[in-house]
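Service request form, structural biology core

Requester: graduate student, group of Dr. S.
Request type: structure prediction, single chain
Budget code: on file
Notes: please return the result as structure tokens.

Sequence provided:
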Amino acid sequence: MISFKEGSNKFNFRAGAIIVSGDKKRVLLHTIKGYNFYLLPGGRVEWLEDSVSAIRRELKEELGLENITLRLRLNLESFFNFNEINYHEISNNFVVELDDRHKFLEEYDEFLGVEGENYIFKWVPFDELDSQIMKPNYLKEVIKNYQEGFEYKILNDK
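Core staff response, request fulfilled:
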């Protein structure tokens, strides 16, 4: 994975997915056991792997999700502090609209992913997004406006 640390600084290259339910009323978020916030499903890009391949791999590994159509929505460069580490993270975030082939994924409001009990997934109605704690918080606006075109954004939350 493309992630490295130097002193108290860490760089990550990540791919994320804005997974929209078939009825276009909910988005799938996830958290990691022990965290008090949600983020987009996805993960780090591997060395010599492009972002599209990375998000396809991550969604298959985490959710068993295959045969998806992707649309790049957001390239996000963010700077933040987490657990006393200064992060510089670049992420490409893709919209995935589920169809009838993927109904299995919408059977529960909250569920564990394929990789075990550390990853907890939750369907959140768009009108309840503001009540969720998300990192970064800006993603709430991107999710609500997922149908808009491509955007590049820099966030500095340090």
